[in-house]
């Protein structure tokens, strides 16, 4: 009886692997077309998981910055250490749009800036 289960299990695994392999290009294409706007699941995951982790990393980074500040001063890079340990996590925690990846955030920021320039040009005319 065990011998009969193995070929069935192997064929089920092979079929599911082929199905997932066929679906992979579709998901990549969907992600490329939706680069500009985050989905609802991304927003939920960002608010429940990513933002608390980023907040904790900001706090831990600030502590590490204070602890390593004498070494950074001796090395001549306190600004770089502050940017990496404190500012980058803080910007991702508090400034980045909800659910956005950094690339999506930059794309939306550039889109808003171009819209603002268009409004200024239209108002000047």
Helices and strands in order, then pairings?
Elements: H1 2-33, H2 40-75, H3 78-94, H4 102-124
Helix pairs in contact: 2-3
Task: Please describe the structure with a list of short key phrases separated by commas or semicolons.
4 helices, single chain, 2 domains
Describe this structure in words.
The chain is an all-alpha fold and 125 residues long. The chain has two domains: 1-33; 37-124. 86% of the residues lie in helices and 0% in strands. The chain has four helices and no strands. Helix 2 packs antiparallel against helix 3. The protein is flat and about 50 Å long. The model has no long low-confidence stretch (mean pLDDT 81).
Structure at a glance:
86% of the residues lie in helices and 0% in strands. It is mostly helical and 125 residues long.
